[in-house]
Automatic annotation (TrEMBL):
Subcellular localization(s) per the UniProt record: Secreted
A GO BP entry: defense response to bacterium
Presence of the UniProt keyword Phosphoprotein in the record: no
Domain (Reelin) ranges: 24-192
Entry-linked Gene3D superfamilies: Reeler domain
Protein's name according to its UniProt entry: Reelin domain-containing protein
Record InterPro entries: Ferric-chelate_Red/DefProt (IPR051237), Reeler_dom (IPR002861), Reeler_sf (IPR042307)
Organism this protein belongs to: Lymnaea stagnalis (Great pond snail)
Family the UniProt entry places it in: Belongs to the insect defense protein family.
Keyword terms: Antibiotic, Antimicrobial, Immunity, Innate immunity, Secreted, Signal
Keyword Signal: yes
Pfam families per the UniProt record, alphabetical: Reeler
Length: 209
C-alpha cells in the first residue's frame, strides 16, 4: 500500500514538473523582447527545438507577410519625430516584433535615430535605443512607437521590422515607405502675363496725365 502511494505521489510530482517545464519553455520563447544579439541581423533566436539551443535556428517565412509598417509622415527633419505603427491583418495577430530605422537598400546594418519606449504600450528599447521591441508576448494587432531622427539630415531612411506570429512563424525585412528631409524650398510666385500688361498700362496712363 505504501509503495502504491509512493508511486502515485512520484507520478504526480513528475506530471507537475513536466507541466512546469513546458510552461517555462513556452514563456522562454520571447517574453521580454528581442535579444541584443539580434541587433545586427534582426533574426529571432528561435531553435527548431525550443528547449535545445544546439538545434538549428528556424528560418523566416518567405511568403507575403501578414503585417505592414506604417509611418505618420515621409518628411523628416533633424530631431523630428515620426510615429511608426506595425499593423496586422484581421486574421493574424502577433506576439513579438523588432523595429529599427536603416537606410533603404543598405546592407551594412547601420541604425539611425532613437526610439522612445512607453511602458504602457508593452514595448522596450534595444541596441542603445536604436531598436525597439515588445516587452511581453501579449497578442496584438497594432503597436505604435515614436522615433526621433538624428540631429543631422539623413536620406532614404526606411523602417525595417521583424514580426513574430508565433514561435515557428515569423517574418523579416518588412519595410515602411522611405523617409527623406523635406525640401523646405519656398515657392516663387511669378506674375501672369495679363497682370504684367495691366500694371504696364496703368503706368503709361499715369505718365500721360
Amino acid at each position: 500500500m505504501t509503495a502504491h502511494i509512493t508511486s502515485l505521489t512520484s507520478a504526480r510530482v513528475s506530471f507537475i514538473l513536466m507541466v512546469t517545464f513546458l510552461a517555462v519553455g513556452r514563456v522562454r520563447m520571447y517574453p521580454n523582447g528581442a535579444p541584443e544579439e539580434s541587433c545586427s541581423d534582426m533574426i529571432p533566436l528561435h531553435h527548431a527545438d525550443e528547449d535545445n539551443s544546439n538545434t538549428p535556428l528556424l528560418q523566416p517565412q518567405t511568403t507575403t507577410p501578414y503585417y505592414t509598417v506604417l509611418v505618420s509622415t515621409t518628411d523628416v527633419e533633424p530631431n523630428g519625430h515620426v510615429t511608426v505603427t506595425i499593423s496586422a491583418d484581421q486574421s493574424h495577430d502577433y506576439e513579438g516584433f523588432f523595429l529599427q530605422a536603416r537606410r533603404a537598400n543598405d546592407t551594412s546594418g547601420t541604425r539611425y535615430g532613437t526610439f522612445t519606449a512607453d511602458s504602457s504600450n508593452n514595448v522596450t528599447t534595444r541596441c542603445s535605443s536604436q531598436g525597439i521591441t515588445h516587452s511581453n508576448n501579449v497578442e496584438r494587432y497594432n503597436t505604435s512607437v515614436v522615433w526621433m531622427a538624428p540631429s543631422t539630415k539623413v536620406y532614404n531612411i526606411q523602417f525595417k521590422a521583424t514580426v513574430v506570429n508565433n514561435y515557428s512563424i515569423f517574418f523579416t525585412n518588412i519595410h515602411s515607405q522611405v523617409l527623406n528631409p523635406s525640401t523646405g524650398s519656398s515657392a516663387v510666385v511669378v506674375p501672369s502675363l495679363g497682370l504684367s500688361l495691366f500694371v504696364l498700362l496703368l503706368r503709361l496712363i499715369n505718365h500721360v496725365h
